[in-house]
Amino acid sequence: MKSLGIKILKAAALFLIFLFSILMLKVISQYTSFDKNTGFLVFKQQVVNNPYWMFFFYIHIFSITLCLLAGLTQFSGRLLAESRNLHKNVGKIYVYNILIINVPACFVLGLFSNGGLIGITGFLIQDVLWAYFTIAAVISVKKGNISRHKMYMILSYAVTTTAITFRIIKNLLYNETRHDYELFYGLNVWAALLINLFIAYVMLRKKISVIGKN
Fold first, then answer.
1. Handedness of CA 146, 125, 190, 92 (dihedral sign)
2. CA dist 119 → 44, 61, 111, 122 (Å)
3. Which one-letter DSSP state was computed for residue 38?
4. How far apart are CA 166 and CA 191, in angstroms?
5. Among residues 29, 91, 110, 182, which one has the fewest Cβ atoms lying within 10 Å of its Cβ?
6. What span, in angstroms and rounded, lies between the C-alpha atoms of 58 and 21?
7. CB-CB contact of 196 with 68 (8 Å)
8. How many CB atoms lie under 10 A from the CB of residue 149?
9. Spatial CB neighbours of 157, under 8 Å, sequence gap ≥ 6
10. Which among 207, 199, 139, 120 is positioned nearest to 165, based on CA atoms?
11. Phi and psi at residue 10, in whole multiples of 5°?
């Protein structure tokens, strides 16, 4: 019964991540007009005329959903069992997306983050952890250490999904009449990261506990 409950919770979590990933496509679609006065860009008027910032902004938002969905498939036991090559190839898409596209892009975006010093440090630490966990996952699997590979993939994906957690917190708690936008934004960056890493920690503890009982 306990293992069944864990499987149900895992399936529900994966479904919610998939659902929010798809919903993010709706948010991202507003930027296809390349209008500098739409969505999040309304709050970034001080940098929208910087071509380098805009370049990294667009490649980040247009690639992050692929990163979310590609990473999501890596936790499918069926996919791994039935098609190791597909698992490996989708994993490469996830890794290349993060290390070649999003880590460099988010570093630049993080330097100009909302939320003042709190937001900037939060985003830069997220970026460093994202790169570290993802590289460690690749190194582990190349060395044949599958358990460490899985551990680092969980941690890497925990950072990937901070984009979703950040938006959930903002939509549930932010009130423009009661909260200072900059302070709320900066604290939200840290909250999303800490919540996701805590969830990853709980998942890893459960995995270790299950292995120890076998």
1. negative
2. 14, 18, 9, 5
3. S
4. 8
5. 29
6. 17
7. no
8. 20
9. 71, 72, 74, 75, 200
10. 199
11. -65, -45
Residue 77 CA to residue 93 CA, distance in Å, equals 18
| pTM metric for this prediction | 0.84
H helical segments located in the chain: 2-29, 51-61, 64-73, 77-82, 84-96, 103-111, 116-142, 146-160, 162-173, 181-213
Encoded tokens for 191: 């909250």
- Locus of tokens 């969830």: 199
Q: What is the pLDDT of residues 170-201, one digit of tens each?
A: 989 998 888 898 999 999 999 999 999 999 99
Which range has the top average pLDDT, 3-12, 128-137, 205-214?
128-137
Question: Rounded CA gap, 105 and 103, in Å?
Answer: 5
pLDDT band at 76; cut points 50, 70, 90: low
Token readout for 30 is: 């507003």
Alpha-carbon span 169 to 105, nearest angstrom: 23
What are the distances in angstroms from CA 17 to CA 111, 165, 191?
27, 10, 18
